[in-house]
Amino acid sequence: EAEVAQSPRYKITEKSQAVAFWCDPISGHATLYWYRQILGQGPELLVQFQDESVVDDSQLPKDRFSAERLKGVDSTLKIQPAELGDSAMYLCASSFVETQYFGPGTRLLVL
Amino acid sequence: SQQGEEDPQALSIQEGENATMNCSYKTSINNLQWYRQNSGRGLVHLILIRSNEREKHSGRLRVTLDTSKKSSSLLITASRAADTASYFCATDIMQGAQKLVFGQGTRLTINP
User: Which residues of B touch A44 (CB under 8 A)?
Assistant: First the structure.
């Protein structure tokens, strides 16, 4: 069964450093999402792509976060510089119609 | 901001018992979805109920939706230890492209 791939699974970094996360959606899924999930809370949408276009990045802290999906397939989420409050699980999901399929996530710890 | 609120925040029951979780939301929706998340993993889609549906079943899962009260419930019957997880409701709000807004989740523990 096709799955959403994410890497790395875990990332430890020091504050002020740059980090990047990668996501490969299920083949054929035009819509790709990046979520941030703080421990004990539900996922919060950071950015949504339709093919290579951003359709919603209203909750993305654009002063330090950036996301791209250049060829409309895989995507990269970057944080520069990382802050202590960025410690969280970063989830990628993709969808064809209504159901979203999630990857295993990247757990980020900023020291 | 999170539109959905789950109740209870945590639930602990014995294996074999039924588990009921509730979700309330604030704005009009296209559909409401329930997801499960095992500790430290990604979310898994369980069931989707559309705004014009009142009840839906999938295996041991039963979901109800009351749009007049802006609430939904998820019932898991004959619970198993493997059902231990966090359960989230997500509302597909009526806003152009599909956008899911997740609640805080219910942490379900099934005791053997």
Answer: 2, 102
